[in-house]
Amino acid sequence: MSDIVFISGSPRAHSRSERILFYLASLLQEKGYTTTHISVTDIPAEDLLYANFNSDVIQQTNEKIANAKGVIIGTPVYKAAYSGALKTLIDLLPQDGLRGKPVLPIMSGGSAAHLLAIDFAFKPLIHAVKGEPVQGLYFQDGQIDATKSNPIQDSGMLERTEKQIQLFEQKLKEIYYEIV
């Protein structure tokens, strides 16, 4: 069981949004959290496309998410929303698959024009499976260098990212200590 599950909704391995997830995982690992990375690219396309709820991979994925204390989901913006591959994966979660879990939504896109996709598309998706979204982060492609270990190249975005991680941690602790 991992404390935090990272879900990459990018249909392209080594994408900018996925690099951000790996970086955030390293930050949280330094603070003592255990992490697990799930990518839509690791799940057989047939299982996603044909909604194979009985697939071993889908069941293992759902179990990892169910056992996590918190979830961080990253996706590039496609047509003013999250990726279709991510939506398909979320559709295969149980109806309350994120119940009681803080969820930090991360999006990346080509311009600031897609900034509201977090609030108008991504957060409603998280709410639909009963997750508790933390504010979220939107990265413009120019703020990310996917070739570096710290892909966040904009100092203002790096500061906002650190604040969002603190808020996520605070929410984790609030929920965890309420349950214990």
What does this structure look like?
The protein has 180 residues and is an alpha/beta fold. It is built from 6 helices and 6 strands. Strands 1, 2, 3, 4, 5 and 6 form a 6-stranded parallel sheet that branches. Strand 4 (102-109), helix 5 and strand 5 form a beta-alpha-beta unit. The mean pLDDT is 94.
Q: What's the helix and strand layout?
A:
Elements: E1 4-8, H1 16-30, E2 35-39, H2 45-49, H3 56-67, E3 70-76, H4 84-91, E4 102-109, H5 117-128, E5 132-133, E6 137-140, H6 155-179
Parallel strand pairs: 1-2, 1-3, 3-4, 4-5, 4-6
Q: Indicate the low-confidence ranges by residue numbers.
A: none
In total, how many beta strands? 6
Query: Roughly what is the average pLDDT, rounded to an integer?
Result: 94
Q: Could you give the distance between the termini?
A: 17 Å
Global Rg: 15 Å
> What is the percentage of strand-forming residues?
15-25%
Please bin the fraction of helical residues.
40-55%
Query: SSE order in H/E notation?
Result: EHEHHEHEHEEH
Structural class: alpha/beta
Query: How is the quaternary structure best described?
Result: single chain
| Anisotropy-based shape | globular
So how many helices? 6
Instruction: Specify the biggest β-sheet.
Output: 6 strands, parallel
